[in-house]
Structure formats: C-alpha cells, structure tokens
Amino acid sequence: MAGQGGSSAGGRGVVISDNWPGYSLDLFTYPQHYYGDLEYVLIPHGIIVDRTERLAKDIMQDIGDNDIVVLCVLKGGYKFCADLVEHIKNLSRNSERFISMKVDFVRLKSYHNDQSMQDMQIIGGDDLSKLTGKDIVGTGRTMKVLLNNIEKYKPKMIKVASLLVKRTSRPDGYRPDYYGFEIPDLFVVGYALDYNEHFRDLNHICVINDHGKAKYRV
Ligand code: HPA
Ligand code: MG
C-alpha cells in the first residue's frame, strides 16, 4: 500500500494496488457472526480514521470562512460522515475559526447482492432547496444523479468527499474532490458498507468471500 498526502483538494488518495494481499483477519478482532464470511481485511479501521482526519484538514483549508451543510449519503456513508464531521469539529475547535455545520441526509440505493442496478433512487432527505447558497460537502458513494439534483439549487460551492474510489474500467467514473483511498475493483464491506444490509456493523473494510456472498444472498 503506497500512500501520498498531496496538498489539498486534488491531492491523491492512498492508492491500494491490485496485488495488495490485505491483512489476515486473524490479526484483528471482528464480530463473531462474520467468522468464515470474509476473505481479508483491505483497510483496518484505525487507518480509515487516521486518513479521514487528514481529509478533514484538507477540507477545512479549502472552505475558508464559509459555513457548510454536510449532506451525508445513507446508509453506506454514515460512518465516514460521522467521523469526518467529528474531525472537522475537533480541528476547528483547536483553531481560530469555528466552522458552523449543518448535517442533512439523503439515501441512494442501487445495489442488489453485489451487482449495481440500473435505476438510482433518491429516498428521503430534507428539502434540498435549503441548500441554496450554502457549501456542501457530500460524503459517501456520491452519484452524478445526486449532484445534478443539488446543482439546481445553485449552492455557492459543492465539494464531494468520498472515503473510497474504485478503479473501475468504466470511463464515466466520477472523481470526488476528496477521497481517502483508491481501491481495486472489489466488492467491499464494513465501516457502514453493506452486502444486502449485512456487514455494516464491521469496523474494518473487508473483502467478502464466496461463503459470505452465498450466506447473505437475496
Ligand atoms: N460494497 C458495498 N456497497 C457498494 C460497493 C461495495 O464495494 N460498491 C458500491 N456500493
Ligand atoms: Mg449498499
């Protein structure tokens, strides 16, 4: 795993190469009900949290004195969003300026088993028109659909932060303004990411094995 800090927005994330073998599950603790369902740990929880702290610092540098509305994309983004908000809060408490933050939530759903479905649904979330004139940091698996919806309301600035970016072969791959890790094109679970609603209660980001896929298939 090769990392590079970069300066701020535009800096690269930690790049996890295709031949990265991951960490043995035996080196960490994880819920007993997932024993036998996972292949390996791709990113341990501690590294996720440390990298998120740096993203928080980069974001704070870029937003200046503006107040922000954090739009968390549920459900998979809730851990990243919570940790990111916590780091921004802590960093701003220890600096000159205290950034005012509002947090809102939307839900996007497009996955069934480990396959992406064609239609994207935006479920719930408050009135997006409230975002007008505010700066937004979207977190989670942010989709173009959502951005198109938000842009209608002409916010002063929109920034997208995502913990993970997958190296897919698709040419339309969206690049967020901030991201934690660039990972191989693998289906991963944990840290709020699910496989049919399972594995959200796993702290580390892991690769699911065939047994796990079969066990929780719907
Ligand atoms: N895991 C869980 N949910 C996802 C993934 C993934 O790898 N990719 C897109 N949604
Ligand atoms: Mg999901």
Please explain how this structure is put together.
The chain has 218 residues and is α/β, with parallel strands linked by helices. Helices cover 22% and strands 29% of the residues. The chain has 4 helices and 10 strands. The strands form 2 sheets. A 7-stranded mixed beta sheet has the order 1-8-7-6-3-4-5, with helices on both faces. Helix 2 links the parallel strand 3 and strand 4 (101-112). Helix 1 crosses helix 2 (78-93). The protein is globular and about 50 Å long. Mean pLDDT is 84; it is low at 1-10.
Summarize the structure.
With 218 residues, this protein is an alpha/beta fold. The chain has helices at residues 45-63, 78-93, 144-151, 210-215; strands at residues 14-15, 38-43, 68-74, 101-112, 115-123, 135-139, 157-166, 178-183, 188-189, 205-208.
Blueprint of the fold:
Blueprint: E1 14-15, E2 38-43, H1 45-63, E3 68-74, H2 78-93, E4 101-112, E5 115-123, E6 135-139, H3 144-151, E7 157-166, E8 178-183, E9 188-189, E10 205-208, H4 210-215
Parallel strand pairs: 1-8, 3-4, 3-6, 6-7, 7-8
Antiparallel strand pairs: 2-10, 4-5, 9-10
Helix pairs in contact: 1-2
The structure holds hypoxanthine and magnesium ion.
Hypoxanthine (HPA) binds at residues 76, 111, 141, 187-189, 193-194.
